[in-house]
Amino acid sequence: MNDSIPTVVAMTTLSTGFLILAILVILVRSRTVEMKLLLIGIFMAIAASAEANVVGVSLGANAAQVAVSGGLGSTTLAKIAVILTLAGAGMMILSRLAPPATPAIGREGPHVD
Predict the structure, then answer these.
(1) pTM of the predicted protein model
(2) Under 8 Å between Cβ of 84 and 44
(3) Domain for residue 37, yes or no?
């Protein structure tokens, strides 16, 4: 058990560094808020699954199993990833349903008193 502690700490540090780098790249390169939320959620899910695999927790298809079993912050990270991904997908769907606002005409006519 004591041999796995340095491995878990190293993987947590690496996944956190990867996540911070991914978030910075996404915030700089992505244009829409929906895509930012979606990509940050996906990268968080990747970091959570990598961390959980090192600890020995299987992130299966059953969400309740992930909520009950967990190591360090992998379950919390997975929950946040699901929320961000669903929020990004929901915003994408809502933005497609409503047409964008029409810009106002920039010309003004003469004002006569």
Answers:
(1) 0.62
(2) yes
(3) yes
